[in-house]
Amino acid sequence: MPFTDVESVKYSQTTTGKKNDKIVEAVEIALNAGGTVALKDLIDCDYERLAAILQSCIDDFDEYKEAKQLIPVEEMSDAVKIAYVKAVINMAYWNDGAIDEKEFAEILLLMTRLNLSPDARFTLRAYLSSADGLTPFEGILADLHAGCPDGQIKTLHVSLTKDLINTHMSTGGRSVADFGFFQEYRRLLDVADGEIELIMMAIENDFKMLKSEFTDDHLVAAMKLLSAKAAAVGTPLAAVYISGSVVGMSAAGITSGLATLGMGGLLGLSSMATGIGVAVLLGVGAYAGVRKLTGVNEVTRSKRRELMLNEVIKQTQGTIALLVQDINFIVGRLNETLAATDRQEAQIRKLMNLMRQMSSAGDILTRKADTAQNSANRIRCAQHLNQNTLHALTREPTKLLLYDYISGFYEERTEIVEKDGTRSEVSRLTLKPDCDTKSLENLAKAFEAIGYFNVGDVLKGSAVDMTLKAKEKLAGLLS
């Protein structure tokens, strides 16, 4: 029945039975047109609570309208995005009255993820340099709420908490307990302990994705654990990711990445594509059995994660490009100030400090991009080298030198391997952990040149190798 037809709702109890020992609970709904409808005989229902909720719907709401659910921050208004970033800037200033290069780099990455307009970036650029003119945190939250789409305030609070905690942890913080700014304003953000645990799990999971040993399978398992934790605390997992991933992916990027892993509906963000077309098919062409037989499966297991890492690289490069624009803007202002000789000294000092801050942040962003590129290059190389396969593929004179070149990147290492519930020690050639990005890129090209991950080349090389070994054995028998 429409709520507009309901006059009032009340909870009732009546007794029945020969001895009046049976209590019957009900919710009685009085209609405007007269008459009453009783809700009873429901399975496992708190009738008193249901009556209170229905009466609240009648008393406290004048109208009902559709509200989009779980909208990424980058799709919200500039007013919301400006307030969101200002909250992080306030936090960065709070502990020591200054923004260091690490904090500045995290803020720039956040601005890139949120896809700010040039006008919004100009507003935040000015705010970044005005330590003595910061808006109180209460005022920032009021601005955030004023522009927030219907039904999004709670998810915005969870997402903002994630970005505040990440900036704190990325710049030397060890735990939420020692995060003074958050502890002071936590009551305003209204986040529960379970939600903070979910946020910490998500941040840890995002950074694990950059590690070379973190495969597609690990990522899927980690996202399932996150999803279970989100369900347990009653918070949509998307609330953690509406501003993107802390390692540099936009909300759209991480949604698309999860789609390639068969988890497209996990976040359920509005207005988001749930797949990225043919990219989903990368590395899926060969039969699984042949991939396992030849070692090709090692690369395809991480092919989808590579797509996500490329998104991290793209976002970081975009941030560096915006930083260059900001530096050019500051240089222009510096030149203007130099022309005004009567008021230049204090202004020059301020602008030079900004230049130093931006240059230091640029170094940090470059290192972040290099880390992501290093991980992406590692995916294109064999984590564990099969010497027999390598030997078979480099028998030709033109490829002979590549055997020593590729082998030089590997070292003998004993590892614990678990299979079918049994743990055992295995000694194998493993990619060295300290290879630089450029060397890994060249190594990946070497693997491509010999066809190490190409099923046809591997099978052909193995056949040639077996033929040559058979000839050697036959020659030994005849000699």
Number of helices: 19
Instruction: Let me know the average pLDDT.
Output: 76
**Order of neighbouring strands in the sheet with most strands:** 1-2-3
Which class best fits the helix and strand makeup?
mainly alpha
Number of distinct beta strands: 6
Q: Which stretches are poorly predicted, pLDDT < 50 over at least 5 residues?
A: 271-297
Structural domains: how many:
3
What is the strand content? 5-15%
**What pattern of helices and strands is seen along the backbone?**
EEEHHHHHHHHHHHHHHHEHHEEHH
The largest pleated sheet is described as: 3 strands, antiparallel
Q: What is the percent of helical residues?
A: 55-70%
Shape estimate: flat
Alpha-carbon distance between the two ends: 97 Å
Query: Mind telling me the C-alpha Rg?
Result: 30 Å
Question: What do you see in this structure?
Answer:
The chain has 479 residues and is mainly alpha-helical. The protein has three domains: 3-60, no CATH class; 73-305, no CATH class; 384-432 and 451-478, no CATH class. It contains 19 helices and six strands. The strands form two sheets. The protein has a three-stranded antiparallel β-sheet with strand order 1-2-3, with helices on one face. It has a three-stranded antiparallel β-sheet with strand order 4-6-5. The model is unreliable at 271-297 (pLDDT under 50).
